[in-house]
C-alpha cells in the first residue's frame, strides 16, 4: 500500500474550528435568558456497598480494640466464653 499524502483521499474536506459552548447570561439589552443547569450524581449499588463496608469496618475496629483491651487486662477469657467457643468447635467437628 502506498500513501501519497492527503491529496490522495477522495472527498476530503478541511476541518472547521468549532465554537466553544457558552451559557448565555441575562442582559436587558440583548434579551437573552440565562439557562440554569444542574449536575446530578447517582451512586451505584456497588458504591453504596463499599461505603457500608467502610462503616462496618470502623465498628469492627472499635470492637477489636475493646477485645484487645480486655485480653490485656485479663478479663476477656471467662468460663462462659470458653464453654461457648468449645461448643462451637465441637458442633463443627461432629456431624
UniProtKB/TrEMBL annotation:
* Residue numbers spanned by region Disordered: 1-39
Q: Which residues form the Anti-sigma-28 factor FlgM C-terminal domain?
A: 39-77
- Listed Low complexity bias regions: 18-30
Under the heading InterPro entries, the entry gives: Anti-sigma-28_factor_FlgM_sf, FlgM_C
Q: Kindly list the residue ranges recorded as spanning the membrane.
A: none
Tell me any Pfam family this protein matches: FlgM
Listed name of the protein: Anti-sigma-28 factor FlgM C-terminal domain-containing protein
Instruction: Give the originating organism.
Output: hydrothermal vent metagenome
Amino acid at each position: 500500500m502506498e500513501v501519497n499524502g492527503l491529496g490522495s483521499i477522495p472527498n476530503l474536506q478541511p476541518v472547521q474550528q468549532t465554537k466553544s459552548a457558552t451559557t448565555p447570561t441575562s442582559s436587558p439589552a440583548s434579551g437573552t435568558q440565562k439557562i440554569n443547569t444542574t449536575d446530578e450524581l447517582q451512586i451505584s449499588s456497588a458504591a453504596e456497598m463499599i461505603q457500608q463496608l467502610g462503616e462496618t469496618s470502623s465498628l469492627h475496629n472499635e470492637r477489636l480494640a475493646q477485645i484487645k483491651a480486655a485480653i490485656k487486662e485479663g478479663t476477656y477469657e471467662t468460663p462462659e466464653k470458653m464453654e461457648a467457643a468449645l461448643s462451637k468447635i465441637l458442633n463443627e467437628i461432629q456431624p
